[in-house]
Design goal:
Blueprint lengths: L5 H8 L9 H30 L3 H13 L5 H10 L14 E4 L4 E10 L12 H12 L5 H5 L5 E9 L8 E7 L13 E13 L3 E14 L11 H4 L4 E10 L5 E5 L6 H14 L1 E3 L5 E3 L1 E3 L4 E4 L9 H9 L7 H15 L5 H11 L4 H7 L5 H13 L6 H13 L1 H13 L3 H10 L5 H14 L8 E4 L3 E6 L6 E4 L6 E5 L9 E5 L3 E5 L5 E6 L7 E6 L2 H10 L4 H13 L6 E4 L7 E5 L8 E5 L53 H7 L19 H4 L5 H8 L10
Helix pairs in contact: 9-11, 10-11, 10-12, 11-13, 12-13, 13-14, 13-15, 14-15, 14-16, 15-17, 16-17
Length: 712
């Protein structure tokens, strides 16, 4: 037992060992001193190295806490490091620090004049709308504007449209027209909208409506409700409104803005994010010179140019941008790729893993090829879809998977067709041509849309254009004969089976002035055009449907006239095949996964309707409430605000990022199986129409008003 005197302890603490101390004590004391000094040096070096890894403000705060003896929160240290994009094994993604603006639909409005009405127009009452129209007519130096407005063959209308995200100058989009309240006009049937400028308008509290910039010009024949029952109460309200498919032409380009959240804003970070985006995506000017896709403008704003591969699928482009890694070293990159490759092979996580691998770029192709070998259909599909957007032209297996998905699986169809339309290869074009003869009319018309996006003059479409009126596409298909009418994006009629003939006898109207008459047993029909005060023009042609459509087109029939002709022919059973209206594949359908053994089938919703690729979008059908409320016209909702009025997690700036609910929809989160969705039933099939085979039933679907919330 060693007895230590108090004086010895004091001397030891001061660093001095008493000379009269016991020799063994002197030896033990020296060891204790050396151990204490080593511990102090080790602690100081550890703290210093941690401090040196922090930015200057981090060093100051940590030093203050160290001096005061305050405990350091581990989460604070982790946030401080990741805020500066410090490289770590957990790679930060661009979506963690930014939001994207410019991805919403911009409502446009204008006041226009519809002409060529057959006595169903009228003089509009005095109002601000009439004054606006009169000023526009004066600007164009139109003589006697009051006389024109008072004619029974003209009508003042309110013109509305939604300017899409990613729109390019000269790109067409749909238009809606509506008779204002208290007007004397009763119907827009047969009318033609004169060129009308469309503006963005904003309500300013206390100052009324302010007009913004001009974004588009609308013009064309108005598509309204048709049929024998047009005088009934059921369709009376529909005659005062109409649409013009592809009737608006954009006069500007819409770009995107990447906004950095306030607590991450700096010039260095802005440049770092722009470089990360431009390293993944490149664009070229008209001289073939490579240009950056993203350009840092300020410490908080980055201009993002659209990439041509995603021209018809903005939702996917936005999601890929959010998944681009920032400041990732080779070790972290390799570990992350291996983790994503494992998640890709799991059906529940394959959708997100495929998008994140797509965000990596060409280095991820090998891992996606592994997904093509999976035994799960959905895993193979998501891998093939990502390879399509990566422009993997050497992978024919991916094309076959996408073709099979478009043909056989309604839940994947819209995404498969959009992906095939981005692949500029002969294999993808041949796959789309094969789909023109498949059983599903939805898949067949979807293939027409996809081919027209790749090459609108492709010989398989056999396109004939009647300028400013409609487009006729004649598909030499081996499938069952069918006819498709579109009221979105383009005024086109598609005939599948060029040899199908009109069944006689028939007496059919093509608008108000053209009639087609055919007698039982004849191989020809007579087409007559009536004009007040002029001699009737008569023409005889074969009863082949394409020949009749060409003849009425040459006789100046407009698209609404052709639609009326086809609907009457379907009502009177004069068509040899099926008539479809807007058979567009959509997102948000349920995919039924068949399990092996005794396990039951499970269902998962694939995407959402509001995230449907732009090539097949239904802007007016996006719900404004219910389960898809977070994905309405603005696409992305803002989070709840904190007590200071700033959006949570954004320090004041509104967030345009998807909510957790919308993200789960995109990633195919498990949901209850919708018993009404079956893989072999098309959305617009006979079962969908039910017993509404009458003209009125089809017409109500044709012209359901998407702008009823507007009261002008």
């Amino acid at each position: 037992m060693v007895i230590v005197r108090t004086s010895d302890c004091v001397g030891l603490y001061a660093g001095n060992i008493p000379m009269n101390a016991d020799p063994d004590f002197q030896h033990d004391a020296r060891h204790i001193v050396f151990l204490l000094l080593g511990a102090i040096v080790f602690i100081c070096c550890g703290c210093t190295s941690s401090l040196l890894q922090l930015p200057s403000n981090g060093i100051t705060s940590r030093f203050t806490e160290f001096v005061r003896g305050d405990s350091v929160d581990k989460d604070t240290v982790k946030t401080s490091v990741s805020d500066d994009f410090d490289t770590s094994l957990k790679t930060p993604l661009l979506g963690d620090y930014t939001s994207v603006q410019g991805n919403t639909l911009v409502p446009l409005r204008g006041i226009g004049l519809v002409v060529n009405l057959d006595g169903t127009g009228g003089d509009p009452p005095p109002s601000s709308l009439r004054s606006t129209l009169q000023r526009e007519m004066a600007r164009r130096k139109i003589p006697s504007p009051s006389k024109i407005l008072g004619s029974p063959n003209t009508a003042m209308v309110v013109v509305t449209a939604y300017l899409p995200a990613f729109v390019r100058k000269g790109q067409p989009f749909d238009v809606r027209v509506l008779l204002p309240a208290n007007t004397k006009a009763s119907s827009l049937k047969g009318g033609y909208l004169l060129a009308t400028r469309l503006f963005e308008e904003t309500e300013v509290r206390g100052h009324g409506t302010h007009r913004g910039d001009e974004y588009a010009i609308a013009e064309g024949p108005v598509l309204t409700a048709f049929g024998a029952s047009e005088g009934s109460a059921e369709t009376k309200g529909l005659m005062g409104r109409g649409s013009i498919p592809g009737g608006a032409i954009a006069t500007t380009n819409r770009e995107l803005d990447i906004v950095i959240r306030r607590r991450f804003q700096s010039i260095r970070k802005s440049k770092q994010i722009a470089d990360a985006v431009s390293a993944r995506f490149q664009r070229y000017d008209r001289f073939g010179r490579q240009q950056p896709l993203a350009v840092a403008k300020t410490d908080a704003l980055i201009k993002l140019h659209p990439h041509p591969v995603y021209r018809n699928n903005f939702p996917r482009f936005h999601h890929v941008i959010r998944c681009i890694p920032v400041a990732e070293n080779e070790v972290a990159r390799r570990l992350r790729l291996e983790g994503l490759s494992e998640r890709l092979l799991i059906p529940e996580s394959s959708a997100l893993a495929a998008v994140q691998l797509e965000a990596v770029g060409n280095d991820a192709k090998a891992f996606l090829h592994m997904g093509l070998k999976s035994s799960y259909d959905d895993v193979r599909f998501f891998a093939a879809e990502a390879l399509a957007y990566l422009q993997d032209s050497q992978e024919s297996e991916a094309v076959e998977i996408l073709k099979a998905a478009a043909r056989d699986e309604p839940a994947f169809r819209v995404y498969a067709l959009a992906a095939l339309s981005t692949m500029d290869t002969a294999q993808s074009m041949l796959a789309l041509r094969e789909l023109l003869s498949t059983k599903s009319l939805e898949a067949r018309y979807g293939a027409v849309r996809a081919i027209s996006e790749m090459n609108d003059n492709d010989r398989s479409l056999n396109t004939m254009r009647f300028k400013n009126r409609f487009i006729l596409r004649q598909i030499d298909s081996n499938g069952t004969p069918a006819v498709h009418l579109a009221r979105r994006r383009s005024p086109e009629i598609v005939v599948f089976g060029t040899n199908q003939k009109l069944l006689l006898p028939a007496v059919l109207n093509v608008g108000n002035r053209i009639r087609v008459i055919g007698h039982d047993g004849d191989e020809t029909v007579e087409i007559s055009r009536y004009q007040l005060g002029q001699e009737t023009v008569r023409r005889t042609c074969s009863r082949r449907l394409v020949d009749i459509l060409k003849a009425v087109g040459e006789m100046k029939a407009a698209y609404p006239d052709v639609v009326q002709f086809m609907i009457e022919a379907e009502q009177q059973d004069n068509l040899a095949g099926e008539l479809g209206i807007d058979r567009l594949p959509q997102g948000g359908r349920t995919y039924i996964q068949k399990m092996s053994g005794d396990e039951l089938e499970t269902g998962r919703k694939v995407g959402t309707p509001s995230r449907t690729p732009g090539i097949f979008d239904r802007i007016e059908d996006v719900p404004t409430d219910g389960e898809d409320r977070d994905l309405n016209l603005t696409t992305f909702s803002n989070p709840s605000q904190d007590s200071n009025g700033a959006a949570s997690g954004t320090s004041g700036e509104p967030s345009m990022e998807p909510t957790d609910q919308s993200e789960s929809d995109i990633l195919n989160a498990s949901s209850q199986l919708d018993s009404t969705v079956e893989s072999d039933v098309e959305p617009d099939s006979e079962e969908f129409f039910g017993n509404q085979r009458s003209s009125a039933g089809i017409l109500n679907r044709l012209m359901r008003n998407p702008f009823s919330q507007y009261e002008f």
